[in-house]
Write a structure and sequence with these properties.
Elements: E1 4-6, E2 25-31, E3 34-40, E4 52-53, E5 59-63, E6 71-76, E7 89-96, E8 101-105, E9 111-112, E10 121-126, E11 134-136, E12 141-144, E13 149-157, E14 162-163, E15 170-174, H1 185-188, E16 207-213, E17 216-219, E18 227-232, H2 240-246, H3 261-277, E19 281-284, E20 292-297, E21 311-314, E22 325-330, H4 345-357, H5 408-418, E23 437-439, E24 448-450, E25 458-460, E26 469-471, E27 477-478, E28 499-501, E29 509-511, E30 520-522, E31 533-538, E32 543-547, H6 548-551, E33 559-562, E34 574-577, E35 582-585, E36 597-604, E37 615-618
Parallel strand pairs: 1-21, 5-7, 18-19, 18-20, 20-22, 23-25, 24-28, 25-29, 26-30, 29-31, 30-32, 31-36, 32-37, 33-34
Antiparallel strand pairs: 2-3, 4-5, 6-15, 7-13, 8-12, 8-15, 9-14, 10-11, 10-13, 16-17, 21-22, 27-28, 34-35, 35-36
Helix pairs in contact: 3-4
The structure holds zinc ion.
Length: about 625
Amino acid sequence: MPVAALTSTPSLALRSTQAVLAPPVKVVRMVNGLTKSVTVQPPAAPKGAGASAQGTAAALTFNMGFVGYDHKATFAAAELNPADQDMSTVTIKAHLIKGFRYTAASSYLYAYQSKGSAPAASLSLKGPSDTKATALSLKSGTFTAKETGDHTFTWSVAKGGKFTGAFDATIQGTEPPLPKTTGSTSLDAMLQRDVAWWHAQGTTPSVGSTQVMPGVWALSPGSARQQLSYSFTTASQAPTAILKNDFPSIGKDKQFAEMDTNQKAAARAALAYISSVTNLNFTEATDGSGNIQLGTYDMSARAGGAYGLDGISNLPASYPLTDKVYTFLNARPSGYVGDSTAGTVGWSEIWHELGHALGLKHPGNYDASGSAATGPFLPSATDNQQYSLMSYKSNAYTEGVNNLSYMLYDVAALQYLYGVNAAGSTAAGDVAGAGGQFSFSDSTSVLSTLYSATGRDTIDLAGLSKGSTVNLNAGTFSSINMLSADSKAVRQYSGNKNVALAYGSKINKVSLGTAVAADTVVLNGAFKQGAFNDINNLQSCDRIALSKSLFGSLTAKNIDLGTSGTARSKDSRIVVNQSTGDIYYDADGSGSRCAAVKIAAYRAVAGAAVSSNTFAFVA
Ligand SMILES: [Zn+2]
């Protein structure tokens, strides 16, 4: 699927030019008593917001007051006055941002005195709340700003010494990036990293205490923004300059068009899904001011296929001055992404681009725009749309079907950045806390990920004509409405391993299909937390599967069927009360059910019988 992230960062107009403003001047450089005559080119005048040279007063102001990305903005060089060689201090004021790490350095630090060796020089820093300046190392004046505001850097020479007129300084600010690893190589492959996530400027992200998946904890609250707005940009609101400058070779901004009704619905559905799994909240800004701007334009001139790209999106913080990203679809009426109803390429395309808009990257080494992709990457076994909607690749389970939602790794990566919604659910129809339904249709293919933190929601297989295997353990795949046997050799949609349960999900309710097709429910570990699996519409042909990893090695002799719920032998591990439908796990083998816990309750359909054959033993 030819889709692309626009990964280039628009250059910030803060770099000094190399233009020569004055002829080279000859200066005498005195270091450690050695005298060396060198010729240097006077550096250019300062550029950038608020930057100005203050003449021979040797003071200039450099304003770094932009938001968001602010990545390695470099203030390079200020020519104070080539003719002036009698300064004992040089002062530079810079607007610094709390949490950023800064380096102040001078490459033209030429000091002299009339006799003897070169005088000692020093550098000090005074923050807006400081009552006195503190020393910084001349060689590596690196520090983290403790507050936001105008800071004063002062280069001084010892008494009797002077700076020459050729002096420059570079103050470089680097925003705190994301941690080097999430704790999972799989999630590391999903994130653009660096500073490409939505956050307040200068945020220093730290790891919190909420588990996303084994080995991964979400960033702590405050590490990311939780409120974002979005807008469906109209043609009259089209960001003409950005389209021309940063969306390569468009030249067709007049063809900018607002998203259609289905496209808007797909975008709203994607954002609602993200709100359900993370702590991000989205509001629609109807005045065009949204942080995420959605629209369409003709991309047929772009590489990526006969009709050009399907869509393109910036990464977070691409435009720090405006705090916006742009997510555009190809408006060319090719029919390829024209339909954006659920299950179409157009639908998954919008979700994909919004993934970029929030900081997700492709998990493989490819990019439709042809630019170099950023690693790390997923191995081929997981670099596919079964694990991530951000992947370009299909596997045996995803061939011929489009993602209906973000998948396992997408959800976990978004939760890592923006927190885990501890009360969230992607089920439909959860009214007043009564619990919703994860429903499926017999007539449509499905490739999606379910999430429920509430434990109230039910996987509902009613109406399906084919059998399903529902694995209630978080971070696993279920096979819903299997059209054919599981065969990796056949690369076409089969309904196998098509529905994931997101990490951290607590789903323990399932209502089985009542067609003459066998369903299997793999019990989850919820009984360990005092909940139990709730199975409705159990038929004689259905199976309840017990995982070896949860229950140990069991065989049919460990299944104790009766009407009292009391274990009858020391072999009894699974005790079934056929009168009430309650199922207990007796871990201690005491035969007294003393240590038994209720792990499931079933309601069989009329005439169905539960026998030892009902139970299956899986890895
Ligand atoms: Zn992409």
